[in-house]
Design goal:
This protein is an alpha+beta fold. Helix content is about 30%, strand content about 30%. The strands form 2 sheets. It has a 10-stranded mixed beta sheet with strand order 1-2-3-6-7-10-9-4-5-8, with helices on both faces. Strands 13-12-16-11-15-14 form a 6-stranded mixed beta sheet. About 45% of the residues are buried.
Length: about 325
């Protein structure tokens, strides 16, 4: 059975493997053991409630219960932009016209902004290649919203997700090569590392102070603004199915899009029901349901069959054990 559970310090080897597999541009998964140790410690303390709610970064692992293999990761940052700025480029449309010539133009520019302070971010969604079919990605993605829905007061009313921008098969990033690198004269990996490990002062020091006219950029750069890395297309589809939409912001390094949705309008948050657990040897249900615990501290999630009658969800023993719940306790269920 696939189980989504909290990440902790013992997951370092698993997390490092996923970081290596994720490749360039996956800012939240650096191939740096020291940063990953800090992240896992932060995840442990976040689930335990040992730190201020807005500083929490919950990391989730997708585990095969029989083998203990970890095949994927997802995360929820309670709030971004509080300790370090959350920079983006906003794509701004500027209308210009000359009545005497009968000419109307719309010029688009990129403007550096820091607009999403305090918003919750869902991210770090990554699965091993052999797990990208059969519903594992949907389970992992939706588990983040089940986590938010368990205790929504711990999260912002606005939720965003950043998607990785376009890279070529040989690892080159057209937007970085033609635009961002002109302002940040370093390797992409170095800028990416500094984004995750510093206060981002270097961005404030070096980023363009004035709008960048998109029409003046080389075609390879123009073509990828707001576009998603091929590996991120399924993740974008999952986000859209939950109600997320592009909000006009793109990443300053790879031009990948940002999407956003109101917390209470996220489909899984909105539609999941709180039900009382009953346990039976066999459960009759037409289709599996998304089932999670009802608290952040003890969070676990699975996709298994549940028989729902009134305010009761009947689970089999294996499902109850995977969730670590007992009869009479509360779970959240989305059919």
């Amino acid at each position: 059975m696939l189980v989504v559970r909290p990440a902790g310090p013992a997951d370092l080897d698993h997390l490092l493997e996923l970081a290596i597999l994720s490749g360039p541009g996956f800012t939240s998964l650096p191939e740096d053991p020291d940063q990953l140790v800090e992240r896992l410690d932060l995840s442990r303390d976040s689930f335990a409630g040992r730190i201020d709610a807005q500083q929490r970064w919950y990391t989730l692992m997708l585990e095969e219960s029989e083998t203990g293999d970890v095949d994927g990761i997802g995360s929820v940052k309670a709030a971004v932009g509080l300790n370090r700025p959350f920079f983006s480029f906003r794509v701004v449309a500027n209308a210009q016209s000359s009545p005497s010539l009968g000419i109307k133009l719309e010029q688009k520019t990129l403007v550096l902004v820091n607009e999403c302070t305090g918003w919750t971010e869902v991210g770090s969604l990554f699965l091993k290649a052999d797990r990208r079919k059969g519903g594992a990605g949907r389970l992992l993605s939706q588990s983040r919203y089940m986590l938010i829905g368990a205790e929504p007061e711990l999260f912002s009313e606005n939720v965003l997700a950043e998607l990785r921008g376009v890279f070529t098969p040989d690892g080159a990033c057209p937007f970085w090569d033609h635009v961002a690198h002109k302002f940040f004269p370093m390797e992409f990996d170095e800028a990416d590392r500094m984004t995750g490990s510093t206060d981002k002062q270097f961005i404030l020091d070096l980023a363009p102070r004035h709008p960048i006219y998109i029409e003046l950029l080389p075609e390879p750069a123009r073509a990828v603004i707001g576009k998603v890395h091929p590996q991120g297309v399924p993740a974008m589809a999952l986000l859209e199915s939950e109600g997320f939409r592009p909000n006009g912001l793109v990443d300053i390094f790879d031009a990948g899009p940002t999407v956003a949705c109101g917390r209470d309008n996220i489909r899984t948050v909105r539609d999941a029901r709180r039900l009382t657990v009953d346990i039976a040897e066999e459960v009759e249900a037409e289709l599996p349901a998304l089932i999670s615990t009802d608290s952040v501290g003890d969070f676990r999630a699975v996709r298994q069959r549940a028989h729902i009658l009134g305010e009761t969800a009947t689970l089999n023993r294996e499902t109850a054990d995977a969730l670590k719940v007992r009869a009479g306790e509360i779970v959240r269920v989305k059919v």
